[in-house]
């Protein structure tokens, strides 16, 4: 370190040769050859084979992404890009800056090469001096051999990536998942621009479109889950049920402490972090009128006796698969008459939506079935405008008045991302047929804001959503979250049992 650098640094690290030699010596040998093959490895290989078949002869670049600064020298917890996680099988916080390259090989197919930053030797500055990557600071990373054994692919040092990705750039098609790592994408754009024969904007737009096509393919291919993924989803749902029960047990504490929504968030988060990687999205802990704000994640409110609390939360397990479940609970253990009326309507809509989850039905049929029940109740309660009946409000062009009270859709695909497969086109999502292995949410709701003058006074300030995670099976569906009570009577019994009333 120069004298100038030394002055500019308020922390200094010893770097004399004597210290370097001292810190590098007398460590037990590393345990080599002990890493076992991961159970996800064969599934990830199958996924890569599908990608390989779709893009023959092209180099495909799927970055994990890099660390993001939170402030100064502190980073956010790393989460790999979902496409990278899916194609490698790596989850949790693995591996910042890594890049999966599917390299076309002569004779067809691709070789999977994972470039990453392997464990550094104890004789390096990184070992003790690098607070972002060093073993002293963030723990030991795997070696190249470890990752090869774990994942069954070729592992190479990240320092070799730049040359490897640029090799034969003029002769080979190269695509990258653009949103995973902006710096790396900009570098590759330059490489590709340099070898282009013209620098017309249309060529760079065509390249970006080719990249988008890869990203869309990788997003859509996650729609039908393999058996390993379904198992991960079961784990996520079961872990989420544990978190919900812990919240129910602690509701009296949430009431007593004030700012109870934060207490609920913390209790669920504790279990999410304990059992899995964390929460799959920021928990919505919405008591009273806050339930009418669809993505209420501030969670600053009190939890009051007599109110409902809408808890929309999911545990993300280490593989990054997440549940997404909502239950709306009466804080005092029993629904009031008005709360039950709204709750039972939403429950009927949820049952109708769930019944539509079966192969051959379209994805949008689930929403259509649920929203019809919502519309019927709103009509029966006299809330739709004068002269607008159920069919009229369901008309997609001229109706939709019911959306004042349920503006969101009933379902989305669920998996590594809470809103999974988000790059799919309408024809592959909304208008597509449901197939065995898909997992989607069914989550109708009714939201009557406290200041909604169209709603009878006793219903104002009541917001209800019921959300389940549903697997499409060969002959229908399986509600993965069926173990968590859903009807108003079952929810009351659940609270009584957990709180041992
Ligand atoms: N938790 C967000 C959603 O239900 O889609
Ligand atoms: Mn949700
Ligand atoms: Mn959802």
Automatic annotation (TrEMBL):
InterPro entries: Aminopep_P_N (IPR007865), Creatin/AminoP/Spt16_N (IPR029149), Creatinase/aminopeptidase-like (IPR036005), Pept_M24 (IPR000994), Peptidase_M24B_aminopep-P_CS (IPR001131), X-Pro_dipept-like (IPR052433). The keyword 4Fe-4S does not apply. GO terms for molecular function: manganese ion binding; metalloaminopeptidase activity. GO terms for cellular component: cytosol. Its cofactor is Mn(2+). It holds the Pfam family AMP_N. CDD domains: Prolidase. SMART domains: AMP_N. It catalyses: Release of any N-terminal amino acid, including proline, that is linked to proline, even from a dipeptide or tripeptide. Residues 38-185 form the Aminopeptidase P N-terminal domain. Keywords: Aminopeptidase, Hydrolase, Manganese, Metal-binding, Protease. GO terms for biological process: proteolysis. Its EC number is 3.4.11.9. PANTHER family: XAA-PRO AMINOPEPTIDASE 3. Belongs to the peptidase M24B family. This is Xaa-Pro aminopeptidase. It comes from Oryzihumus leptocrescens.
């Amino acid at each position: 370190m120069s004298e100038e650098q030394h002055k500019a640094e308020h922390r200094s690290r010893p770097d004399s040769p004597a210290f370097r030699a001292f810190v590098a010596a007398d460590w037990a040998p590393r345990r080599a050859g002990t890493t076992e093959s991961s159970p996800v490895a064969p599934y990830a290989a199958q996924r890569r084979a599908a990608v390989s078949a779709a893009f023959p002869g092209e180099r495909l670049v799927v970055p994990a992404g890099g660390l993001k600064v939170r402030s100064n020298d502190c980073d956010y917890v790393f989460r790999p890009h979902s496409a990278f996680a899916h194609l490698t099988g790596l989850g949790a916080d693995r591996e910042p800056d890594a890049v999966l390259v599917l390299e076309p090989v002569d004779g067809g197919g691709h070789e999977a090469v994972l470039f990453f930053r392997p464990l550094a030797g104890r004789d390096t500055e990184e070992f003790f001096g690098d607070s972002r990557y060093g073993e002293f600071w963030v723990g030991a990373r795997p070696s190249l051999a470890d990752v090869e054994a774990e994942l069954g692919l070729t592992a190479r040092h990240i320092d070799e990536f730049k040359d490897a990705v640029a090799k034969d750039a003029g002769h080979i098609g190269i695509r990258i998942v653009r949103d995973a790592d902006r710096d790396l994408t900009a570098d590759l754009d330059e490489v590709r621009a340099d070898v282009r024969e013209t620098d017309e904007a249309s060529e760079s737009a065509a390249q970006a479109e080719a990249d988008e096509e890869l990203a869309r393919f990788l997003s859509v291919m996650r729609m039908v889950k393999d058996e390993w993924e379904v198992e991960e989803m079961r784990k996520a749902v079961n872990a989420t049920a544990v978190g919900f029960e812990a919240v129910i047990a602690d509701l009296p504490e949430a009431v007593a402490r004030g700012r109870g929504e934060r207490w609920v968030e913390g209790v669920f988060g504790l279990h999410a972090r304990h059992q899995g990687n964390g929460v799959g999205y920021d928990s919505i802990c919405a008591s009273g009128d806050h339930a009418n704000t669809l993505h209420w994640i501030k969670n600053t409110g009190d939890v009051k006796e007599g109110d409902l609390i809408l808890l929309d939360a999911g545990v993300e397990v280490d593989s990054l698969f997440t549940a997404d479940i909502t239950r709306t609970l009466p804080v005092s253990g029993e629904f009031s008459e008005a709360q039950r009326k709204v709750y039972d309507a939403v429950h009927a809509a949820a049952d109708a939506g769930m019944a539509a989850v079966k192969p051959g039905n379209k994805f949008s049929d689930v929403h259509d079935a649920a929203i019809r029940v919502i519309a019927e109740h709103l009509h029966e309660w006299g809330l739709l405008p004068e002269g607008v009946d159920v069919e009229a409000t369901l008309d997609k062009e001229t109706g939709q008045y019911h959306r004042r009270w349920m503006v969101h859709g009933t379902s989305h695909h669920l998996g590594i991302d809470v809103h999974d497969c988000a790059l799919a086109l309408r024809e592959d999502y909304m208008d597509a047929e449901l197939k065995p292995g898909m997992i989607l949410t069914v989550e109708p709701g009714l939201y009557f804001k406290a200041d909604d003058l169209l709603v009878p006074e006793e219903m104002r300030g009541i917001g209800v959503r019921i959300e389940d995670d549903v697997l499409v099976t060969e002959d229908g569906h399986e509600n993965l979250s069926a173990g968590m009570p859903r009807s108003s009577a079952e929810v009351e019994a659940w609270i009584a049992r957990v709180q041992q009333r």
